[in-house]
């Protein structure tokens, strides 16, 4: 099964070079697996080949040959392999395995979650775009579905089903498509039922310095007419003005306000994919610094420009959402090809406008609509197959971060939590599910993706309990209507997202998760509700018949066993860091309290905590829980922790 | 604080709020402005608001008597008998900035203390700051030793701090200055403990900035936070240039180190800087928050502020005089206490379920440290407070806070007593700007407040259900027992 197996490999901890795990490295057809020696738990680290973004062989040292693996989900793995030859073999194999040349080599074609055919088909049906357009109120008097692209004949990167204004005839569409980069003609992305304003998307016009196209002008006219409440439309070019002007020399460019009747043209400067790729690269370098100072970090963050770019995308989304919601004006959005910045901006605007997209299901629909169906080039951007490295860029990562920034600003507005976003990001790169394969709907049909792979959405939906935001209520004011985010840094901070970019360095994150805590409380609440029902019933029965049995009690006890989830991360997260380099030269000695592990193990409010002593005395189980939960702050300071999860961290701080 | 021009008064407050008043009539405007100016820069402490404030609430507990050293010592003596209360400073005769009673090793008599006091800056001899019940290790604090250039020594000083060591064990001295600064201090008669004279101690230097550097940092930070431009780059570079978060990181790191020495290394620790009234207190009080679950309760935190800041002689009146908008340079002004509160907030953010109090509690303390109707933060030390007769003439902040109406505002709904040591991360990725203070007046807080309310509701509903279920269970159990008794009959 294994291509390669190397023993006595050391896995280094990035934060502390003295912390290393010894184990065996396995290479399989799909994963790199590191299994720690010795420990009973056999801690394992699995990395999918498709997650690997770079492999670096470093200079051999006395202890062995270091190998650095950087992953697309921001995990960084440092291995030291004893033998130079083994290291070379692994290096060569990984380079080959991490860069497949055929789709069939990707994990989703071998991944089998043990679902039958019907379940798989159901899974793919979870997100249905026609249903989504119906939800928006389309088709209606102004908009209709067009079949011009039935065989992908007009535009091969567009979906088969495209929604266009009723007055746009096939002649106009085809004419307009000839005047647009890669024939990506204006098509509907979002329609606002309440005021008929819409968001349409396209690529740049092939206007050069003076070219015109009657059909294209008619197309924009048709979009305007589809919104009788307004006498103009905005045309938003999401590129910096300089970039757009440079494109004119190549026969492309932007709309001339003189040629199109009743448009207002607007540049919103979002940089291109190359700038974004470099920006992320710079930011990741900052994340990888070993014990950076605050200045190193802030300066590096600023220098990367990452948050500036995030803000630019948000500002564009905010502009469009405002035009649609407040002015009731339709907007046509484009960039160069209309599949990167346009996708970002349209989806941010939709998210701000429509609470539905802030639900779990709605968010899946949004990605399916603005990214998957409109031909965002997942394969090229995320390097699923070996290709041109210049095509790679964190376009959807930026969109996902925009959502996170909004979640920080509107904590009650989203049905899903941070984990949901992180897992979607992970699977965009993992190729474990077929959703994000290829560069267009056409290619996916040809590969018969739906028949040969599984859908991520069904997988996430099945586990939706893990992704819920406990603060979300569908009847809360934050979940209604349009969101109005603050734009200036002094009103709202765009923050560095350590949960994503330092995702695997658990030590950097808050040690207790409010989300998990509240979810545990909510779950308990639900159980209490059920129990209350049972108790009421029993009480009524008892009063009636004076009969009793022990059934209820045993049920209660079963429940109480399930309760008390831990709110903290694993104990590893709660050991001191290296606060001083001076400590290591101090003579080593065993600490007097060396066997205690200060894991922040916390029992949630157990429902037995406040129960009266008479009751808990009835059962051993209950009193056991009682003991744990009464570790009060005043008296419990010196109680030994009962958790035995002692790990090897101790050694680090005492080692010479 | 204020700038008057053309019928407009801009009042810049110590809590960082900026209020603009448009007043018709130039003359009235000038009158109002000069009145505000005069009233906000009173020379005499006894003319300040706390001396005129009459409480509108019923006093249940006199806050001036809530945290007495005797109670603290009682707690200590229940776990160890190695320490004693010394009344050596009864009339503030030995050390002007110490309280009348201090806790010192039992084996050191008052005569020796007097000698040690002569050897320490401002007479601040080493006293007990914290006793770690888990392993009996202690944290002491003092000021710098007066070794001078010729390496003076003091046998009693050595004896005093050695008295805290277990046989064969060594301790750590955490000096909150860089080695360079500590060496320079010798020229002015100060200095640090020489290895030759303190062979059982290992000295670690952790540089924490002081005075005007901190004040300038605060001024720059507040300026950055009030910048209304929409430019992200400018914001980050201004935040970086203010160095505020750098100070936070330095202070937290030193505190974590002290806690680590005590809990993980099983060693006793002595902390000092120069005077031992600023960075020393930041380190000792934060280390206690990390180590001692009691300090993470409301009552315990209040007690910590009283012990480690008020009684320990942090000069509040000098440090918290004008806040960030002061236009005249105040020599002694420095946001030392605000930095401490910010560090607590950083830990609170990382352990949101381990503190009984919430962010509002910390913000309240920040406000009252700078301006208050209560006398608690007036004066620079206990000596001055007793001369001003504050307990007789003013109200204590604690009398007001510790009533259930007020307490409910400061309670953290997520709190679950956590008896363990909590180790915060000091990596830059883990530290954030304290928006609750610095963006408080710029940022619409509606959505965050709603989230907080939602949290409270979720937990409240859960508790109500628990109560109901328990009541029903009890009822059931009673009925069952009755039944059984009837059966037995």
TrEMBL record, chain A:
Gene3D superfamilies xrefs: Pleckstrin-homology domain (PH domain)/Phosphotyrosine-binding domain (PTB)
Coiled-coil region: 518-545
Keywords of this entry: Coiled coil, Cytoplasm, Hydrolase, Lipid metabolism
Region of interest: Disordered: 549-656
List of catalytic residues: 335
Domain Tyrosine specific protein phosphatases: 304-348
Protein known as: MTMR7 protein
Upper classification of the organism: Eukaryota, Metazoa, Chordata, Craniata, Vertebrata
Record gene name: Mtmr7
Automatic annotation (TrEMBL), chain B:
PANTHER family the record matches: MYOTUBULARIN-RELATED, MYOTUBULARIN-RELATED PROTEIN 9
Lineage per the UniProt record: Eukaryota, Metazoa, Chordata, Craniata, Vertebrata
Gene: Mtmr9_0
Species in which this protein is naturally found: Crotophaga sulcirostris (Groove-billed ani)
Stated name of the protein: MTMR9 protein
Annotated Gene Ontology cellular component terms: cytoplasm
GO biological process: negative regulation of autophagy; phosphatidylinositol dephosphorylation
GO molecular function, one term: protein phosphatase binding
Family designation: Belongs to the protein-tyrosine phosphatase family. Non-receptor class myotubularin subfamily.
InterPro entries per UniProt: Myotubularin, Myotubularin-like_Pase_dom, PH-like_dom_sf, Prot-tyrosine_phosphatase-like
Domain Myotubularin phosphatase: 63-438
Pfam families: Myotub-related (PF06602)
PROSITE patterns for this protein: PPASE_MYOTUBULARIN (PS51339)
């Amino acid at each position: 099964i294994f291509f390669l197996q190397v023993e006595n490999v050391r896995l280094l901890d990035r934060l502390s070079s003295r912390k290393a795990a010894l184990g065996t490295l396995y290479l399989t057809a799909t994963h790199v697996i590191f299994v720690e020696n010795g420990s009973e738990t056999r801690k394992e680290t699995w990395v999918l080949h498709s997650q690997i973004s770079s492999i670096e062989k470093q200079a051999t040292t006395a202890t062995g040959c270091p190998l650095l693996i950087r992953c697309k989900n921001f995990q960084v793995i440092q291995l030291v392999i004893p033998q130079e030859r083994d290291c070379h073999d692994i290096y060569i194999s990984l380079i080959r395995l991490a860069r497949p040349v055929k789709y069939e080599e990707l994990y989703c074609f071998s991944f089998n979650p043990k679902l039958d055919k019907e379940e798989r088909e159901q899974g793919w049906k979870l997100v249905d775009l026609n249903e989504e357009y119906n939800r928006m109120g389309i088709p209606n008097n102004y908009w209709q579905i067009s079949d011009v692209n039935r065989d992908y004949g007009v535009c091969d990167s567009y979906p088969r089903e495209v929604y266009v204004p009723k007055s746009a005839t096939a002649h106009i569409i085809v004419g307009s498509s000839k005047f647009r980069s890669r024939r990506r003609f204006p098509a509907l992305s979002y329609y606002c039922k309440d005021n008929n304003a819409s968001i349409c998307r396209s690529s740049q016009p092939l206007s050069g310095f003076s070219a015109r196209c009657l059909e294209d002008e008619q197309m924009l006219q048709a979009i305007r007419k589809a919104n009788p409440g307004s006498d103009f439309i905005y045309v938003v070019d999401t590129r910096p003005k300089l970039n757009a002007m440079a494109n004119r020399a190549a026969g492309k460019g932007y709309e001339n306000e003189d040629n199109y009747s009743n448009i207002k043209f607007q540049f919103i400067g979002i940089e291109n994919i190359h700038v974004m790729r470099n920006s992320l690269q710079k930011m990741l370098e900052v994340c990888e610094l070993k014990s950076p100072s605050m200045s190193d970090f802030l300066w590096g963050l600023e220098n990367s420009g990452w948050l500036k770019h995030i803000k630019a995308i948000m500002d564009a989304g905010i502009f469009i959402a405002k035009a649609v919601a407040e002015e009731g004006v339709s907007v046509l959005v484009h960039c160069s090809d209309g599949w990167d910045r346009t996708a970002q901006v349209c989806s941010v605007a939709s998210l701000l406008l429509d609470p539905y997209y802030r639900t779990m299901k709605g968010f899946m629909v949004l990605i399916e609509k603005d990214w998957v169906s409109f031909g965002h080039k997942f394969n090229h951007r995320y390097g699923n197959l070996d290709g041109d490295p210049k095509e790679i860029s964190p376009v959807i990562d930026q969109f996902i971060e925009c959502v996170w920034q909004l979640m920080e600003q509107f904590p009650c507005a989203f049905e899903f939590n941070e984990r949901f976003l992180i897992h979607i990001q992970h699977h965009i790169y993992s190729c474990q599910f077929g959703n994000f394969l290829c560069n267009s709907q056409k290619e996916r049909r040809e590969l018969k993706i739906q028949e040969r792979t599984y859908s991520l959405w069904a997988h996430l939906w099945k586990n939706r309990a893990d992704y819920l935001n406990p603060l979300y209520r569908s009847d809360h004011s934050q979940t209604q209507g349009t969101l109005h985010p603050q734009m200036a840094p002094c009103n709202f901070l765009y923050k560095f997202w350590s949960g994503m970019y330092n995702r695997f360095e658990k030590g950097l994150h808050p040690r207790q998760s409010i989300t998990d805590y509240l979810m545990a409380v909510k779950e308990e609440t639900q159980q209490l509700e059920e129990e209350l029902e049972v108790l009421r019933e029993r009480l009524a029965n008892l009063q009636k018949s004076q009969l009793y049995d022990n059934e209820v009690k045993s049920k209660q006890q079963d429940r109480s066993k399930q309760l008390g989830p831990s709110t903290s991360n694993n104990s590893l997260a709660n050991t001191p860091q290296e606060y001083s380099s001076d400590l290591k030269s101090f003579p080593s000695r065993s600490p007097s309290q060396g066997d205690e592990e200060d894991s922040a193990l916390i029992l949630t409010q157990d429902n037995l905590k406040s129960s009266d002593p008479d009751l808990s005395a009835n059962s051993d189980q209950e009193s056991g829980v009682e003991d744990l939960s009464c570790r009060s702050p005043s008296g419990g300071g010196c109680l030994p922790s009962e958790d035995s999860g002692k790990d090897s961290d101790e050694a680090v701080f005492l080692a010479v | 604080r204020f700038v008057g021009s053309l019928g407009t008064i801009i009042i810049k407050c110590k809590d960082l709020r900026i209020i603009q008043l448009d007043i018709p009539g130039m003359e009235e405007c000038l009158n109002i402005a000069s009145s505000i100016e005069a009233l906000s820069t009173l020379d005499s402490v006894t003319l300040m608001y706390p001396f005129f404030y009459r409480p509108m609430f019923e006093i249940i507990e006199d806050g001036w008597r809530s945290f007495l050293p005797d109670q603290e010592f009682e707690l200590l003596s229940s776990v160890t008998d190695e320490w004693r209360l010394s009344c050596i400073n009864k009339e503030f005769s030995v050390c002007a900035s110490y309280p009348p009673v201090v806790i010192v090793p039992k084996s050191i008599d008052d005569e020796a203390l007097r000698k040690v006091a002569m050897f320490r800056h401002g007479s601040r001899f080493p006293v007990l700051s914290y006793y770690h019940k888990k392993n009996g290790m202690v944290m002491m604090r003092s000021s710098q030793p007066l070794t001078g250039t010729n390496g003076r020594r003091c046998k009693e000083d050595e004896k005093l701090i050695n008295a805290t060591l277990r046989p064969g064990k060594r301790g750590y001295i955490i000096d909150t200055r860089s080695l360079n600064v500590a060496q320079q201090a010798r020229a002015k008669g100060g200095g640090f403990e020489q290895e030759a004279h303190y062979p059982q101690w290992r000295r670690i230097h952790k540089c924490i900035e002081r005075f005007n550097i901190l004040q300038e940092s605060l001024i720059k930070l507040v300026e950055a936070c009030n910048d209304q431009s929409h430019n992200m780059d400018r914001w980050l570079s201004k935040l970086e240039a203010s160095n505020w978060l750098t100070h936070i990181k330095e202070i937290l790191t030193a505190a974590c180190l002290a806690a680590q020495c005590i809990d993980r290394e099983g060693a006793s620790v002595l902390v000092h800087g120069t005077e031992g009234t600023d960075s020393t207190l930041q380190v000792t009080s934060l280390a206690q928050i990390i180590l001692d679950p009691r300090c993470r309760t409301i009552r315990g935190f209040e007690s910590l502020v009283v012990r480690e800041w008020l009684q320990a002689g942090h000069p509040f009146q000098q440090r918290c005089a004008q806040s960030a908008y002061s236009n005249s340079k105040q020599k002694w002004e420095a946001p030392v206490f605000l930095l401490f509160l910010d560090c607590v907030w950083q830990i609170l953010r990382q352990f949101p379920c381990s503190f009984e109090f919430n962010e509002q509690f910390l913000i309240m303390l920040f406000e009252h440290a700078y301006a208050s109707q209560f006398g608690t933060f007036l004066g620079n030390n206990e000596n001055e407070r007793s001369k001003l007769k504050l307990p007789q003439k003013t109200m204590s902040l604690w009398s007001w806070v510790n009533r259930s109406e007020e307490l409910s505002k400061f309670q953290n709904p997520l709190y679950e007593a956590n008896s363990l040591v909590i180790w915060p991360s000091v990596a830059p990725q883990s530290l954030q700007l304290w928006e609750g203070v610095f963006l408080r007046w710029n940022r619409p807080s509606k959505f965050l407040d709603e989230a907080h309310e939602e949290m409270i509701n979720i937990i409240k509903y859960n508790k109500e259900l628990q109560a109901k279920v328990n009541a029903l269970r009890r009822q059931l159990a009673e009925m069952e027992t009755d039944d059984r008794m009837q059966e037995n009959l």
